[in-house]
Amino acid sequence: MKQKSAWGTEAKELLEKPLAVLKRVWAVIWTAAMSFDRASGTRQAAQLSFFVLMTFPALLLLAVWVLSNVFDTANVREDLIKFIIDNLPVEEVEGRQEITKFLNGLTNGAGSLGLLTVGVLLYSGSAAMGAMRHAVETANENSADGPSFPKNKGLDILITAVTLPFALVFVALLIARPVNSAINDETFFSNFSATFGGPVGIFLFGVIFFSWMFWILNPGKTPWASTLIGAATAATLVGAVSYGLRLWFAISGGGSAVYGALTGFIGLLIFLNLASMGIVYGAHIAATFRIKPWRRSFLLRPKD
């Protein structure tokens, strides 16, 4: 009888553990959602998407300039533009063509920029970093603020200058052709691009990128566990938005009959806004784990 009782107790504990995990996961999701609502997360997302859109030309010019000077290949610009277009939820031929034409015109001659122009572009591109900083700071329940201007602007420029090259190295590996042309080794990098150039590689890059953003931009102490959870949430939501919009545009026909030549740009605006909401919510998830450290224990040691 004692043995049966012990087995029954163990079975009950095994059943209760998943329930405890689900309860704690839901508690974190709900707490972060309430924090998102109190901080006007949709407005933060709109601000972030606006600054990303406004600084995108500057960041793209910098990206082409860096890749052109590092790899010194004629195809780097078209490869980068193709990579960007392929990862946008724009399926309509007309929408793809109009954005491709815009990006080609924007980046034509970007490889020969002068250092002064690069500095100006870096200053302009750091505005998106400032919007991200504000969203991460606002996610803190204790309303911790970072440094004031001009120190915060200097930090945004520095973070942009450090982050952009590392991001471009990853993008170059996914594109593969510029790397192959530069080092004359097509086997390894072609295999790398084929393996990680899809959703898995983009997701991993998103987790690394958002972990770095949530950690470096938070003015308070930030455990890596909380940033990883928040980054994984943000990367998952951005991916869900991308694939959801692709599905929607495929079903609805992309709206070309309504928006005409603006179809691609309308789709881009919708994607930026919804993806920014996912990023801001990921910042609130990270803040929830950071401020309530006991919630992190549910991943390893669930308790009643």
Brief overview:
With about 300 residues, the protein is mainly alpha-helical. It has helices spanning about 1-40, 40-70, 75-85, 95-105, 115-140, 150-175, 175-185, 185-195, 200-215, 225-250, 255-260, 265-290. The relative contact order is 0.15.
Could you name the key traits of this structure?
single chain; 304 residues; mainly alpha; 80% helix; 0% strand; globular; disordered C terminus
- General shape: globular
Oligomer: single chain
Overall average pLDDT: 75
Helix content bin: over 70%
How is this structure best described in words?
The protein is built from 12 helices and no strands. The chain has 304 residues and is mostly helical. The protein has one domain.
Topology (elements, then pairings):
Layout: H1 2-38, H2 41-71, H3 76-86, H4 93-107, H5 115-138, H6 151-175, H7 177-183, H8 186-196, H9 199-217, H10 224-252, H11 256-259, H12 263-291
Helix pairs in contact: 1-12, 2-5, 2-6, 2-12, 3-4, 4-12, 5-6, 6-9, 7-8, 9-10, 10-12
